[in-house]
Amino acid sequence: MYEKVSVAKGQLSMTTLSAICSIVTTLYSTHETGSYISYGQICDIVPYLVQQLWEFLSPLSPVFHVEAVRCFWLLHSISWNDRIVEAAITSLMIPSTTSSFSHRTSVDRVEKFFVLWNHSYQAGSSRSASRVIWEYPFDQTPGRDSQSAYRLSLLERPLFISLDLLASGPGRAYSMVKQWVQDPSTAYHVLDILTSKLSEFQYFRPDISIPSGIDAKAGLDDGDQCLYLFKAVLNTILALNHAGWSALTSKISPNCSKQALQTDVEDRSSLQSTIAQLSVRVLKERQQISTNMGLRGEDLQEVALFVLHQLLLGPGADSLYPLSLDTILIEQLSSCLDRNETTLQSAIIDAILPSLKIRFAHDTRELSAAMASKNQHRRSSLEALSNISRLSFTGERSEKDYIISQLPQPPSQLLDCLLKGIRAKSSRPMIDKWVHFLTECLPLYLGVIFQVLLKLVECLCKEINQSYKELQLMFQQTESASRNRSEHVTIALLTALENCIATAHDRLLLEESHGSATKTPDQPQSFFGNMVSGVFTAEASQPRSATANDRLTVLLCFQDAVRLCYSIWAWGDSGRGKDTRDSDCQASFQYTSLRMRNRSRRILEHLFTAETLECLETLIDLWRTSLRGANRISGRSVFNLLHTLEGSRPKVAIPAVFNAIYSRTNPAALDPSRKSAMMSHLTEAELAAFLVMYARSLDEDVLDEIWLDCTTFLRDVLSNPFPHRQILSRLLEFAAILGEKMEHTTFGEDQRAKRDLGDILLRLLTAISTSKPIGASQDQSPKSRAVQNPDNQVSSLSKDLVIGPDDVYSILSSIMPALTTSFDADRIASAMSNISTNILAPLFHSRLFPQNINKTMLDILQQMSKIPSASRYWRKDVGDALNDPKFFGMKLNLVKSNWLGLLRQWTLTDKERLPELLSRLSQPSSAGIMFGVGASEARLEADRKSQLNLRRIALLILAADEDHFSGDLSGLQQKLEDLLAATHISSPSSATRAEVYMVLRALVLKTSTIHLAPFWPLINTELQEVVYTIAPGRESETYNPYCLLQACKLLETLLLTSPDDFQLQEWLFVTDTIDIIYPPDRWEAVALADEIALALGTTKNGSTAHLHETGERDDEFNRLWLGTDLSRETAKDEIVDRLLRPFFTRLSIHAFESTYSLGSPELLACQDDLLADLFNDFTIAS
């Protein structure tokens, strides 16, 4: 029968297969086992029968499904000890011919296994199965019944093969297995099998001690199997839907040994609880697992944490509350920090958060039940908790106090763990996770936030300061500085600090709302609410003493946060620390400092929105400290910050300063809600000095926003001036500043406002003379004036400077123009004159010119050039700059972006610019200077002046429109001819020839053919003479290497632009026929360039090397060949060898190719190269 079955071709019928299976089973089991059929024959025939039966499990047709499954179990009943049927099915699901290294099965094979699984529970539970188990007992897993073991002996390996598809990612196979697992019955049996397999390992058997000397290979194998099973559990849980989760939460696990899990919970636990206990067991045995498995042990613990995390997020997670998972996980996290372990921190934190929420929800339900039993009409605490974030409690105060005091508290170890995590170096790689952890834990501390706030803020500020200093050190010592993520750590910890203070401030507002009336909509409702707009509006009454203490705690934290954020924001402001930074990383420093400034600025926005007065006083204190330390840059940074923040805009900051002054001069007259907490030790004199400086720094446009608040405050002071007698002179100066700003705005057109301000000024003068003796503080004038203006260069500023009020004489002297000035019709002209005189002119006359000029300054000058009434101011500035001998040291990018446009506008508005420059050019003369004292110096000075004027002429020609100077070309031609007649001993000498060639290059680029015609004789003659002298033996003292280079550049420009008149003379310089490419026999060069190339010869610095140096490609012939930085960097003695020899070697070829390549010449490149030569001041005589 075996032979017939093995050689049978095609698929046998189900009737035949069923008969064969029955016969084989009966013959093997009749009388004595193996008397008719041996076990060896069974082992041979069963795989063939399984292969035939496997085809009947196709899901496409349900016919013979039950019969085939019964045959499987019949065959399994006689071979289950060796799992022959299971092995055959496994080989069918993963055939040996597969080319994949993943050993994953296919979709159709999985579908067949699902059919076998769905029908197996009936077949495997039959009486015959029970009889077989009784007749052929075998060793089974403790805690698992024989029926389950028998069923698993057939389905285990195919099940794992199917579950492996859950790890394959989205796809058809993954979706099919996921849908199959989502059935509650299937989910239960699958997870029950997995947990039963996990409980077999020694890690989960407390009754079996783990020997310390366990075989390494055996421990590693067990660990790998355990890791595989945990991954299977995780993938299965991730695939469950709501119905599948019911198998975890409602079904009871009858198989897994409860003795294998030490727990205090009841024995009849759900699968969810069982899996959670298994995961916890892995964490508790982490040291032994890590010893046996190494890095794989960390993978096992991480997967166990992922499983625990999913269980805590799933439905029915409240049932895990008795396990006290939050306490266990906090202990594990603290242990990781103690051992400086980083790998598991993120996974533990992810698991802690839902476990804490489970505890909080459980304790909240108990509180709700207690509240409900105490008073049926009282709101539940759950409703109260949901409203805490909105800060909208209403009702009796005792009820709210009771709710807050009875709020559930997190575990006592949590705060220590949080502080330890913030300080630990091992938490730096995942600092964002720790910040998120802290943020999520803050609502749990709502009832005791004031008790833990100082510890948290102190720890955060300390760590932020440390990481910030490390970041600063990185840019000071780029080579030796440690690499420790200090930038990212600082920003992350700033977020944590912001969240802590925000939570505490929300809690404070809630507490203060109990004793006050309902706040109006324009008052701050939370940390991120809107700022007060009606500063002088009455608010609540004085809070109770406990609330005042809580407010003091919060404001101390506000003060620390403002100081810290300001120090970070001021990093790099106005060049602070520039001398100690590595200049090589300037760009990175600017990017990093900008990022840090933006983050600290956002935090300061929130702080100012919440507590404007206290934050402003903290900044004023910083400003005062900077003045005492003679650090004017830091003092200006405070104002820069105030102008940057939206929460400290003038509409808010000015009334806040008024409140701070009143809190010190006349607190009894101020509403309690507007009083300062006096956290900063500032005097009214210091506040008034700050008010004056802040007012001076404001734009005129904000005057209408602060006008009403300012006049109200000043009238209030004048109604009772005696308490403010020490600062009346400062207030007079402040009022005068308002008058100055009124002059520059349309608000000044309001005659009533002008009359009101005049009245206030007169009354202030009267109050000063009556309330304070004139001359009492006259000796304080010099010192106080130094305090008033931080930009004033005062060398007498000392560290012991104490800010005091100025005397009335100095104040009157400073405000007299504001008292007497009226509106002028030519205000725009005056403003432009001020900009020209005080801003632009000093820049152009500075000893740092032109290095102190940037694009922004030139943009201002360009805007002035568009204003008719400012014409004479900007024209004077442009003329002064152009006539400065250092002008040609200007940065080239500024010339291209700004100066060309300015000079173009300048030439359009002033027609006499070029003639005036031509008049400066003197005719060369040799009389009286060939010999004598100072002859060489006089010649150099004449050369320098001529070179500068020629460069100015060339620059104006380039900047102007085409043919703009056509009427002045005859005079220019005459001047150039005179200069070309100079010799090396004349004054000016022939050293000016290079600049003459630059002027000719400019003319070629910006002059049309008809106007350029008179210059061709001059150009052709000069070029021939210059090129002729390049050949060895023909050198002349008249032509220095720079002159030769500029002459070649002129020739190059002519060849590229190819003017019509030059085309007739081109053959004199280059060979313009095909002969240069394919020279005929006995061909002799006629062109001057080819003659020079032959005379110079070819060396290692020949054409090929030059092409590579200049970056020219063979397919580009319309580009400059000498127009590179190499032409300006080459030493004077190497110009001929490095530049001109390869230039002439290839000149005719390039000229021919550029002519017939039909490409457009790069005129812009020609202009850029000429500009680069003009602004190369190293070639100017000195």
From TrEMBL:
A Gene Ontology biological process noted in the UniProt record is: Golgi to endosome transport
Q: Which SUPFAM superfamilies does the UniProt entry name for this protein? A: ARM repeat (SSF48371)
- Where is the region Disordered? 773-793
Q: Which Pfam families match?
A: DOP1_C, TPR_DOP1
Instruction: Name one cellular component (GO) term.
Output: endosome
InterPro entries hit by this protein: ARM-type_fold (IPR016024), DOP1 (IPR040314), DOP1_C (IPR056457), TPR_DOP1 (IPR056459)
| DOP1-like C-terminal domain residues | 690-1157
Q: Where is the DOP1-like TPR domain?
A: 373-497
Question: What PANTHER family does the record point to?
Answer: DOPEY-RELATED, PROTEIN DOPEY-1 HOMOLOG
Q: Which protein, by its recorded name, is this?
A: Dopey family protein
User: What organism does the record attribute this protein to?
Assistant: Coccidioides immitis RMSCC 3703
